[in-house]
Amino acid sequence: KNGIQRPKGYTVSYHANPEMEKMHFGPKHPMKPWRLTLTNKIVLAYGMHEAMDLYIPRAATSQELKDFHREDYIEFLQRVTPTDNTWDPESGQYLFNTGDDCPIFDGLYNYCSLYAGASLDAARKLTNLQSDIAINWSGGLHHAKKTEASGFCYINDIVLAILQLLLHHPRVLYIDIDVHHGDGVEQAFWSTDRVMTLSFHKYNRAEFFPGTGALDDTGPLRNDSPGAHHSLNVPLHDGIEDDQYIKLFQDVVRPCVRTYQPTVIVLQCGADSLGGDRLGCFNVNIKAHGACVGFVKKFGLPMLVLGGGGYTARNVAKAWAYETSLCIGAEVHPNLPAHTPYLEHFGNEKTLFPKLDSTNRYENKNSRVYLESVVMGIMEKLRYLQG
Ligand code: V1P
Ligand code: CA
Ligand code: ZN
User: Would you say the pTM of this structure is higher than 0.80?
Assistant: First the structure.
């Protein structure tokens, strides 16, 4: 029997700590760390583990977390428990923006330091040249800020990982295909030209979280600030389709790489941009989502591959397992192996590529003309960077 072969000429590393997967945000909360169990089950069922270096990373230390986050915020996360009163009467808000989106649950600090530890481990494997493509599906929590939690994110593992990459790399390109704007990463590197951030997302300032990421928000307005024009945003409407998304992604990412010439790429693969997601509003199928990963891989640069959002767990698991197979360059059978654990959770079609049924489709509000204008807009921003 011919199992899955290791890729020729490069190394893929997979960073996963199963302790993460047991965590619970609470019964009504859309974020389910258990989706990581499903992902790993599919990866293992296909035998993909034989083609990668597997690591069970240690938790990040509080000192490591403080490389980005403020000390008082980290100390709060370390000591807070679900029964503490975290209401701050002075501000009329919960401390550090905890609350419904970012609840305080049992094991919260452990959860945060584990996913951050995994992203740091992955980044270090890239910088010490032990890995060429490093994967952490538990990371990608792009909304967390220096001093507060936001949108299900407490610690910004992406910022921490990029800070590690910057010790060895002159220019990092960050690409974010989560359906939400990657605001925390954008904000952290707003003033520097050593990181270019590029987020694709549904944009509606009043109605869709977090409400930022307009086409014209591209960095500090002063032209003499190094960060000017190094934050790029691709605002989209409901219902974008596979072929449109792939073409748009390629037409935007290609010139960004050509112009910026990054030496490493960080790709946040939030799976809430898939059709049928509980929170998302696009019509993108798993093959098209994966095509973005495949396209970025072709540049042949070291790559850090992270998770992110994704709220219909069976689809998240299929997408990330498929994207793992693309990273190792393995062809996998479209039908899930019969011995996949929890097969009953994967819907009626036991396939990696379920068809988006018509009841889950959003009306497509992205005209061809609109998408062309977005690509032209991005090209215009990039022109500022050329000599
Ligand atoms: O819309 C909001 C806030 C709450 N309102 C006051 C405005 N929050 C969203 C947060 C979405 C976070 C996405 C994270 C990620 O980008 C990265 C991991 O994917 C929100 C939504 C929503 N439909 O947008 N929170 C909730 N739903 C929610 C629902 C049930 C229980 C708790 C939170
Ligand atoms: Ca995004
Ligand atoms: Zn999201």
Answer: yes
